[in-house]
Amino acid sequence: MNCRETQALIHGYADGELDLVTSLEVERHLQECPECAQALASLQAVRAAVKNCGLYAQAPPDLAKRVRSAMRAASRGDRTRSVRIGPWLAVAASLALLAAAVWGLARGLLTARSDDAVLARELVASHVRSQMLPSHRFDVASSDPHTVKPWFEGKLDFAPPVKDLADQGFPLIGGRLDYLQNRPVAALVYQRRKHSINLFIWPSTPDDGAAPAKVTRQGFHMIRWTSAGMTFWAVSDLNERELREFTRLVQN
User: Fold this and answer.
1) Could you tell me which residue, 128 or 53, shows the higher pLDDT?
2) How far apart are CA 25 and CA 237, in angstroms?
3) Most CB atoms within 10 A, among 14, 59, 114, 189?
4) 138-251 has which fold?
5) 111-159 pLDDT, tens per residue?
6) Domain ranges for the chain
7) Global pTM?
8) Secondary structure of 10-41 in the HEC alphabet?
């Protein structure tokens, strides 16, 4: 991918709108091209500045008083008519409230499902990126938990639990920082024969418990659980039975 193609896609890349293959191609070019990398950094800086600038306008102090006065005047003028239509108005208001409640519930469910789908895509993309781009696989390469765990100190606002499961056939081979759901997370990398397992860890939130416990996307299996205030996602192309065995060992 050249600079002209990258520049045409850089906005979509920054918004997370590109498919996985195209996103990886753009990312590979950004690693090799300082000018395009600077263009991305400038775009992100502009967006951050616009997002954080103060655009709030203070309403005049007497605006609320004028609105209340206008409402009282309108109410007095329509009092006779409101007496006749009062019961129907009450029914209409009840129906409107019911419709709003149903819509709010449906919207909440749709938003939750959408967020789950976005997270699943992010998890798969991060796992695949770590396999295709060696620079994304490890920040610290080690099979020693006492080397990997301290490496995260000062880089995260939590301490991820780190285990070596080599005796059970799932050796730890390293770890790295990753970025999911708008926050930095820990990613531990394990091996099972020629299959890599990415174990993502971050502090749990009330919404994490509502996410699906098992997801399959693009041939990759993902298993979620929460424990000791942490959310865990294991992602791999390993068969589901062995991935479940891995998660059981981590939990124990």
Assistant:
1) 128
2) 22
3) 189
4) Phosphorylase Kinase; domain 1 (3.30.200)
5) 445 566 778 888 888 888 888 777 778 899 999 999 999 999 999 999 9
6) 3-51, 138-251
7) 0.57
8) HHHHHCCCCCHHHHHHHHHHHHHCHHHHHHHH
